[in-house]
């Protein structure tokens, strides 16, 4: 496993990122009013929401999600390989892209735009479990320590982005609520995007964005990435797809220590923002 990584503005990034492209992204990338951006801390359900918005865009039809890789349908804006694609991307309707950046490294032009952001959160205990397993699969991941995780602290990331809550172009979703009520959340996303779908189209989106459908779709499950990037023998991007797997990994002491930290860092915020246990 590679231990290469870069640091930009004190934040750790895996291989595949560069300071030049992170700077371009923050200072020069031009966000358009019609853009739809999925923003997350890693392992929070990014690909799930990309699949959902792809399917909403195609009214539940699977042609697009089964023919174009998910990372081309919604490229990562901060990744060097994505930027030329996004800068020339002229598609019918909005541009879709994704980001794991903390708010202070995000394209500055966003803050003068009407672009729509969907911010997806997940129980940070499940985030770290998912990241732990994915680190074994993704050869670009360095070994992480508690003080050095990719994209910085979950607390800083979450508090930063939650400062935008209440803005009409900013929708907050949680992984746990998607699991509990995918139908209701697809409707919520349609409403946010201003897309009207018939009931049978919503049903198709729900069916085709399920864990099993995504796991079976080679354009969404990352199995097409070459062995230089992913060690497919170690697992897959779509691993378990459940809430609460942390209970199989954390000791009681680790869980209590984390809860204490969570209280210290998040006490000021409305706890209904965090619907997990
Ligand atoms: S990444 O690498 O940061 O972009 O990963 P991300 O997509 O944010 O998160 C990966 C986790 O999301 C789970 N996942 C899903 N869960 C339920 N249903 C669907 N359709 C789905 N698609 C992705 C995926 O399994 C990872 O979670 P874990 O806990 O590892 O299974």
List keywords for this structure.
single chain, about 280 residues, alpha/beta, Rossmann fold, 4-stranded parallel sheet, 12 helices, 6 strands, about 40% helix, binds 3'-phosphate-adenosine-5'-phosphate sulfate
Fold topology:
Blueprint (H helix, E strand, L loop, with lengths): L4 E4 L2 E4 L4 H9 L8 E5 L5 H12 L5 H5 L2 H4 L8 H7 L7 E4 L16 E6 L2 H14 L16 H9 L7 E5 H6 L1 H12 L5 H10 L2 H6 L35 H15 L11
Helix pairs in contact: 2-10, 9-10
The protein binds 3'-phosphate-adenosine-5'-phosphate sulfate.
3'-phosphate-adenosine-5'-phosphate sulfate binds next to helix 2, helix 6 and helix 11.
Could you describe the 3D structure shown?
- The chain has a single domain (5-273), classed as Rossmann fold.
- Helices cover 39% and strands 10% of the residues.
- It is built from 12 helices and 6 strands.
- It has helices spanning 19-27, 46-57, 63-67, 70-73, 82-88, 124-137, 154-162, 175-180, 182-193, 199-208, 211-216, 252-266; strands spanning 5-8, 11-14, 36-40, 96-99, 116-121, 170-174.
- A hairpin with a 2-residue loop joins strand 1 and strand 2 (11-14).
- The longest helix has 15 residues, at 252-266.
- The protein is globular and about 50 Å long.
- The relative contact order is 0.17.
- Residues 40, 42-48, 126, 130, 133, 209-211, 214, 238-241, 245 line the site of 3'-phosphate-adenosine-5'-phosphate sulfate.
